[in-house]
Structures are given as structure tokens and as C-alpha cells.
Amino acid sequence: MKMYVIFYIISFLFLFVAEAISLPRFALRENSSCIDCHVNPTGGIIRNRGGWSYSKNMMAMISPRSDFEMSNKISENINFGFDVRGQYLLQMTDSTKKTDFQKMNASLYTNIDLSEDISFVARYDFIQDIWEGYGIAHLIPEVLYVKGGTFSPNFGIRVDDHTAYTRGGDFGLLFTTGTKQGLIYNPMYVESGIEVGVNLFEKAFLTASVGNQGAALFSEDPSFTTNLKISPAISDEVGLFFGGSLGIYRDRRSSGAPSFQIIYPQVKMYGGYFGFGYEGFTLMAEYDIADEYRANKIKSSFSMVEASFTIFKGLDAVIRWDRFDPDTKNDDDDFNRYVMGFEFFLYSFIEIRPQYRIQSENPSVTNNSALIQFHIWY
Q1: I need a labelling partner for 359 at 20 to 30 A (CA). Which of 37, 203, 233, 296 fits?
Q2: For residue 45, which of 114, 142, 147, 163 has the smallest C-alpha distance?
Q3: What 3-state class would DSSP assign to 222?
Q4: Is the pLDDT higher at 11 or at 352?
Q5: pTM for the whole thing?
Q6: What domains lie within the chain, and their CATH numbers?
Q7: Per-residue pLDDT tens for 178-236?
Q8: Cα torsion for 212, 120, 84, 130, to the nearest 10°?
Q9: Residues 6+ apart with CB under 8 A from 24
């Protein structure tokens, strides 16, 4: 029996054996939405007052004393925040074991409220040199908004671990193969454009965006991304969502032998996702397909299943299965990864994340890895 079949069974059993509860999982766990904790309606970057208070008081084992005053406000209409990540890596191959330290990101955020319904958000990462900046206008509060500027498009489940194949994949860090091993949504991917979002009957969230991937003007067709998320209200204790995404853009690559011409094929990415949360348990899954992504007339698939369980306040156990199939017509060419670890929130705004990662591919090689990630945010 293949390992990914075994993992499906384990995940299925875990769903029923655990006392049925990821960043998206926190919203799922609390039966809330991204905008409840973030200024950006699609989540990520700077946290609003509710998200900041949740980070301070609800996540960690130890929180600051009530008489110690803290705030994320510079003034009544200006907030700030940051994210700093680094990790200690262990890489294992057939012949060697190597360890090293990695600086991952150091992002500074700010949000300026120009009115009750108009905000401006900015982010700069000093390590990766990533810039985001956009305005958000809530034309009909809690129903319709328009966002314009430079931002990350809303595709799939936006987990914070970019090594998931449904996001950016391994990103050439531990095991470089010279080929794509994930979708385009790595930490550096942003588009300049416009996004429109609408809440439908408080149970569905639809977004659509169009933008320019690069710095060059008039060089290629704009990209298009849309996402529909359905969140039926079952009860106050149960969180549930499901939905689908579509992304279309023009890639730029060589046609290969014999002409080696520059071509611009249209790449289509589409898929569905699901999330369930009850008390301290969450389960999320996503499956995507990409046409013409790696090569002409080639279809690739990307999968992710993640389960998490709160052992006690401040300590979560997390397991995840990632799968990447470079060519769906070929057998035994897929990559599988099994991630097992913990997320330890010892003190407010401080996270320690140990993980062990098992790689599985054909032909089999020794290329497992382990890490301890340190995360400080505000």
C-alpha cells in the first residue's frame, strides 16, 4: 500500500478519534473569518485590533500581566505590526548530514485608516525585499469592497508554510531540482492590480482580481484570479468551509529544442478546498490542477491535507501531507512529503515550531529534513 493511502487512513481516523478542532486554521477553530482578525479581507499581513488582542490573550500559554499596558496603535487611526522568522535546519542525504541557520523574513507592517471604510496597508520585508501596498475601500460595509495596489492574490487556502506544494513548494531551499515543485504562490509573489470582494448572504465570500505579475508594462496579458468560499453556519462550535479557485496567467519560457524560441503559453490553475473545525481540532485539504504550468501539454496536480489538535493552551500538534504530481499522465513520478511537528506559543507573540519532514519519491533517496523555526510577531 502506498504511503499516501496510509496517510489518508490515518487522517480519517484522527478526525474521529481526536476530540474533534490552521493561520486559516485559527479562523476555522473559532468559527470566524479572515477579516475578523486582519485588516486585509482575504487575511494575512497586519492584524486589526481584534486579531492583535487574540494573539495577546488567547493563543499563548503565558500572557502579559493585565497591568502591563500594550498596544499596536501609533495613533487613533494608525496601527503597526511585524513578523520575524528564522530557523535552524537539518538536511539529510545519502552521504551527509548538514545543519545551518536561515534568516527567513523580517516584515514591517502599517495600516492607516483614512475613514471608517477606507484603509491603506503597507508591508516591506527587509530580508526578502518584498513590497506590498494597497488601499481598501468598503463600498458597502461588510458586503462589498474594492482593493487596489500591489498584493498577493486570493487563491486556495493561504497557509503560512510556503513549502506546501499548493503554495510555492520547496522554493529551492533544501532540495533543488531545477524544476517547479509548487504553484506560483511563494512568499515573493505579488501582483499589481485591483481586487473586488463581496459577501453573499453572510455565508459565501467571492473575490476576483486582475493584475500584472512583473515590472514590465504591456509585455503580457494580465493575470486573473477568482476564489469562492462557502461557510455554512452549522453551530457556534463547528467551523466549516469549502470552495474553489481559478487562476489564469501568461508564462514566459523557452520552447526548447530545436528552435529555442521564447513562448507565452496560457497557464490555467484551478482546484477546490475544504476545512472543518470543532473545539481544538481542525482539518483542511486542498487539491489543485495546473495546465501548461511546467511544460506544453502537461497537466500537473498539487495536494495538501493538514490536521491540527490543541493539546493544551499554547501547544498544537500539526501533521500535514503534501503531494506534487508533475505529470498526471505518468505513474510513479509524484513527490510526497509528510510533515509532523508542534507549534508552541510559550508567550504572547512568540512561537517555536519544531518539525520533521519525510520525503517520498521514485526512485527513493534519503532526503528527509528537520527544523526548529522561531517566529515573533506583533
Answers
A1: 296
A2: 147
A3: coil
A4: 352
A5: 0.88
A6: 3-377 (2.40.160.10)
A7: 567 899 998 889 999 999 999 998 899 999 999 998 776 676 789 999 999 999 988 88
A8: 20
A9: 34, 43, 157, 158, 159, 275, 284
